[in-house]
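User: Can you help me understand a structure? I only have the sequence.
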Amino acid sequence: MAEAEALVRRMDLEARSLPQDKKAPLLAKLREYKADLKGLKDGLKKAEQSSGGGGDAARAELGLGGEDWNGSSVAQRERLQQTTNRIARTGDRIKQSKTTLLETEEIGVSILQNLHSQRETLTHAGDTLSGVDHNIGKSRKILGTMARRVIQNKIIMVGIIVLLMLCICLIIYFKFMKGGNQGDRHNLLLF
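Assistant: Let's start by predicting it. Here is the structure, written out as tokens:
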């Protein structure tokens, strides 16, 4: 029991020295271990109290009690053998439970590692999306500027065409309407 308490204290110190993101799940697991250890202590105290109150009760619990305790050694050996077998089976169950616990802990650690890598992937994807969003914003500004320039070019082109048409009309007006001769008109029409 003392070794278990010392081990829990060492795990507590080590868990508290870790970074905050790794500390929380370990402290939760440590609370479970402390609760289990307390339950075991309580069970040990109850067992000590029941065995301290009377040796007959403890012997009966182990299957060694009865009127013929001082009887034949064969009966005692059989009872001791049965008790030893029960203790061995209980030890095997404890070993199996410990193995299952270790496997569960390994699975939990691998799940935490997977979650951590997935979190990094999601964070990286979020950063990438932020960069893409920024680039899309720049592209929209560039396209808006290009559209304004296209409209400006069209307006300038229409203005030049109107100016040229006006110049052509003025040239025709001054050439033919204001003192030009008929031959010039005829030459212009042939031209």
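Now, to help you interpret it: Residues 1-53 form one domain. The chain has three domains: 1-53, 69-126, 137-191. Let me know which part you'd like to focus on.
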